[in-house]
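Illustration 12: Protein NRT1/ PTR FAMILY 5.5.
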Amino acid sequence: MAAFSFVALSPCSYKRVKGQGVPVKWKETKTILLVTLLGALFVAMSIVSAIGNTYFVLQASHLNQKVWFVKFPLPILLFAYNEARSKFGGLKRSVAAISIGLAASMVLASLCCVVAALVEARRLAVVKSSGLIDLPDETIPMTMFWLVPQFVLLGCADGIFSRAIGSLYMVALISDEEAKNLEASKVLQCQYAGFYDMAVYGVGVMGSVLSVHVVGEISAEGGKINWFQHTLNTSRLDNYYWTLAALVAINLLIFFVLAVCCGACFYVVSRFKDAKLPAAPAVDEPLLQ
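Figure caption equivalent — predicted structure in token form:
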């Protein structure tokens, strides 16, 4: 409500063009605020993506890479990730497709964290049963292909999210006049959408470092053992993955609430536009004094 009050009371949102009854600054103010709020909301998605390039790879490096007599290289997991990301990266630029894509990416990211937590719990059980807790450099008798599902789920989530977040910029911030420009302008628009995508991911990478510190400090309260130790075998990454799964699920719930509220808001605005409005004042004259 504070966000909508800010938009409603903004002076620039209540200026009208001569001869028109609709405030011309309403869309710009609303969309910039909405995209900023959504960008902050999607940081959790970027944190999940960041741990895929760190902890997932670190886990795989200590697992058995052989199947019978054939040794598979570690990059095969990254190949599975890239294939899933490219296959699920196609998304139409429409409001419905973007909304569904963002929701689907968060569902997949949360599911990825759940699968990763279950696999990590099994890995720790194998480490304990094999007596490798204090031997972090030894190969764990567990095939690395246990990690394939979480790499594939992460690739699907990243592919859909990357396309949706860029399309969100294109649909929300590009005005109708800008959309009618030449091909050169479209190239610049795509570049700006890519910059927005990279900005969200960059904040997520920094947020992943902060999340590890915060979660570690919270887990150590009351004299308990910190979830993050010097080695993976003595750490509790499974608990961290469960925490991220819950965080993404909460963000998904907030996203649904925002979608419902914005849908109701758009309905009211559309009914307001259909009504007859009084004559507009001068160009620079605000409606509220």
